[in-house]
């Protein structure tokens, strides 16, 4: 299947929120690559890290053929650039960023979406009127949920919900998760930082996508609602929609599952999370 770029619409929205003094999120779009990054480090260093990451991924839009492994390799390059920048500028020591996004890639003679993430920024997918979370957070609370120790609802209020286990800006870099599947006519994606997902639940996001057809208006409305719900962090969202109609019988999904990794050593907090809580790496 070949997807015409003209069939893809997108909208980008961001807001500093009600608590933070500056916006450390970054959102970039080039061609059919859509990325958000949530910087950590404070004093503008997080903003530097997220900008380096998204800038690096935008370079891939110039390639005539893009494959899934190119995304993973470019994120490793972004990690190298972040570490080099921190080494040159001591005030940036400890900066890092999460990254999440989608891109159209070539594989098996046809185009596929690749969804990728490292950290706790997320990608949601709406298909046949139902929204689901594609990515899996790299966080302490997600590991507790995976082990059945706490529920997803308890995770929303857990004191360790701001501790992430993978990000760019560390050596060695954690594994980048990615999933590959064919485009589906009529589908939509939301790519967002945790400033949105911490304020709006699955049903809230789904209702916006179902009620608002225009991608830019949907992105604006998601961010507006997240700020209205509390805005305790920077809030960023990209909405991507693919024109057309389809049925679930047409879908043949191949996914790359998340693989378990060992727990790295605990590092000092790299930034602040919602409501002034420490957002740190472990």
Structure description:
The protein is α+β, with helices and mostly antiparallel strands and 282 residues long. It has a single domain, classed as Phosphatase 2c, domain 1. It has helices at 45-58, 68-88, 140-146, 152-155, 194-197, 202-211, 215-229, and strands at residues 8-15, 25-30, 33-40, 96-107, 110-118, 122-127, 130-133, 177-181, 188-192, 235-242, 271-272, 278-279. A hairpin with a 2-residue loop joins strand 4 (96-107) and strand 5. Helix 1 packs antiparallel against helix 2 and helix 6 (202-211) runs antiparallel to helix 7. The chain is globular and about 50 Å long.
Quick description:
Helix content is 27%, strand content 27%. The protein has 282 residues and is α+β, with helices and mostly antiparallel strands. It has one domain: Phosphatase 2c, domain 1, CATH 3.60.40.10.
Strand order of the largest sheet: 1-10-9-6-7
Number of DSSP helical runs:
7
CATH superfamily, by name, is PPM-type phosphatase domain
Number of strands: 12
Large-scale geometry: globular
In the CATH scheme, what's the topology name? Phosphatase 2c, domain 1
What would CATH call the class?
A: Alpha Beta
Radius of gyration: 18 Å
CATH 2nd-level architecture: 4-Layer Sandwich
């Amino acid at each position: 299947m070949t997807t015409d770029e003209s069939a893809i619409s997108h909208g980008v929205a961001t807001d500093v929120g009600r608590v933070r003094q500056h916006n450390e999120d970054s959102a970039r779009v080039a061609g059919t690559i859509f990325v958000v990054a949530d910087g950590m480090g404070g004093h503008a260093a997080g903003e530097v890290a997220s900008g380096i990451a998204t800038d690096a991924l935008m370079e891939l839009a110039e390639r005539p053929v893009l494959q899934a492994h190119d995304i993973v390799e470019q994120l490793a390059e972004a990690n190298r650039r972040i570490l080099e920048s921190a080494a040159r500028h001591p005030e940036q020591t400890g900066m890092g960023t999460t990254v999440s996004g989608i891109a159209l890639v070539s594989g098996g003679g046809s185009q596929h979406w690749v969804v990728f993430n490292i950290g706790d920024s997320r990608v949601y997918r709406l298909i046949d009127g139902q929204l689901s979370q594609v990515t899996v957070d790299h966080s302490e609370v997600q590991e507790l949920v995976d082990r059945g120790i706490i529920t997803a609802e308890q995770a929303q209020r857990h004191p360790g919900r701001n501790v992430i286990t993978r990000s760019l800006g560390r050596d060695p870099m954690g594994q980048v998760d990615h999933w590959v599947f064919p485009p589906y006519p009529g589908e939509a994606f939301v790519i967002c930082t945790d400033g949105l997902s911490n304020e709006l639940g699955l049903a809230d996001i789904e209702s916006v996508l179902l009620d608002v057809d225009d991608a830019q208006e949907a992105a604006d409305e998601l961010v507006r609602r997240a700020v209205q719900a509390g805005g305790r962090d920077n809030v960023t969202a990209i909405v991507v929609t693919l024109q057309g109609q389809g049925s679930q019988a047409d879908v043949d999904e191949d996914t790359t599952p998340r693989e378990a990794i060992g727990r790295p050593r605990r590092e000092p907090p790299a930034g602040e999370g919602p409501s002034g809580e420490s957002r740190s790496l472990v």
